[in-house]
Design a protein that fits this description.
With 173 residues, the chain is mainly beta. It contains 1 helix and 13 strands. Strands 3, 4, 5, 6, 7, 8, 9, 10, 11, 12 and 13 form an 11-stranded mixed sheet that branches.
Length: 173
């Protein structure tokens, strides 16, 4: 890990938020959101998991996988530990147009996969009484043996009604 001296203290690259130079996963109508971390530029991508008929898969509504930008942009699946302890999710079907989920590693926020009028889906969550469309998440963690010690999570979204950018920083203790 590269460190730089800044105002007489060491600063870890990425400790002040998602670096602007991090690559962004390819955008299309089935991309729901992505997660990036300070450890490297790779991204965990969450897409609508559709059946061959184009409907959302009731049992696994999102397909989550890595885009390994550090390896030329190849796709790799999440391993068992990543699914069970970190980036996996638990979901419930509410109806054909609405699914509820939360991350296995952070159950404090409930998210909803919601069908829009144009047959696409968005992930929405409530913040301060407002509906926010989730765009991406940035996780800052310090390496601590086998499991990283998460210090904070930044959630980037867009207010559903106004279209204005929304930002939330969650400190993990």
């Amino acid at each position: 890990m590269k460190y730089e001296l800044k105002k007489k203290r060491y600063v870890d690259p990425g400790s002040t938020g998602r670096p602007e130079w991090y690559p962004i996963p390819p955008q299309d109508s089935d991309l729901l959101f992505f997660i990036q971390r300070n450890q490297n530029q790779d991204a965990i991508v969450y897409r609508v998991n559709r059946t061959p008929e184009g409907l959302i898969n009731e049992h696994l509504p999102m397909d989550a996988y890595w885009i390994r930008f550090t390896e030329g942009g190849v796709r790799t699946e999440l391993n068992v530990l990543q699914n069970k302890l970190a980036f996996g999710y638990d979901s419930d079907k509410i109806n054909n147009d609405l699914y509820r989920f939360h991350f296995v590693s952070y159950k404090e926020i409930t998210f909803y996969i919601h069908r829009t009028n144009d047959e696409n889906f968005k992930v929405i969550y409530q913040r301060d009484g407002r509906n926010v469309v989730l765009k991406n998440i940035y996780v800052y963690a310090v390496e601590f043996g086998v499991f990283p010690d998460v210090k904070y999570i930044e959630i980037f979204g867009e207010d559903l009604d106004s279209g204005l950018a929304d930002y939330q920083k969650l400190t993990v203790e």
